[in-house]
Design goal:
The chain is of the alpha/beta class. It contains three helices and seven strands, in the order ββββαββαβα. Helix 1 packs antiparallel against helix 3 (144-159).
């Protein structure tokens, strides 16, 4: 059975957002083009690393002689998106991801694949014959300005979690923390 590709060539919106309280948040990569809306669950670390790597691609492109792709150094104000996630219906939980650059369209390309069970011995054909869902992936292409806005928002969302302990570097829960002395 062929792979179901949720493809967004020129999306209206590409954001990372969360649902839940700090310490219990679920991160989502949400993409919309017109009426098509896809939300995939991600780990916090995946979200942070994705933003970091997208920024690295954009920063490398700036260093090309003459910056032929007109890559902005900062986030264009008209592309800032601080709105909450739209209705979330999780398509899949993200496992492997790919990131690239398409010079023909001057777009950053993100590929996301579902988390797989590494212990599964069955091949795709037997899974499909047994009625399991077809394999799927998310393919997003975003222009450089949108990519800068995406990384800015993602860094803010990731950083809005629980504060870190100055002694051990681990998050401090609302109930307290083993390194933090009780307040008097």
């Amino acid at each position: 059975m062929p792979t179901l590709v949720h493809e967004f060539a020129w999306p209206d919106r590409v954001v990372i957002g969360t649902i839940g309280a700090p310490g219990a948040r679920t991160f989502y990569l949400q993409v919309r083009a017109g009426a098509q809306l896809v939300s995939i669950a991600m780990e916090k670390q995946q979200s942070a690393l994705l933003a970091e790597k997208v920024d690295e691609i954009l920063d490398q492109l700036i260093t090309l002689e003459g910056n032929p792709f007109s890559v902005p150094t900062g986030t264009p104000i008209e592309l800032v998106d601080n709105d909450p996630l739209e209705t979330v219906e999780e398509q899949f939980r993200t496992g492997a991801m790919g990131l690239g650059w398409d010079p023909a369209t001057a777009q950053v390309v993100i590929e996301a694949y579902p988390l797989t069970d590494a212990d599964a011995d069955a091949d795709d054909e037997s899974l499909n014959q047994d009625g399991a869902e077809a394999p799927e992936m998310l393919l997003v292409r975003m222009p450089v300005g949108t990519a800068r806005a995406f990384t800015k928002r993602t860094r803010e969302v990731v950083g809005a979690g629980r504060p870190l302990c100055p002694l051990c570097g681990y998050p401090i829960d609302a109930e307290g923390h083993v390194c933090t002395p009780p307040e008097m």
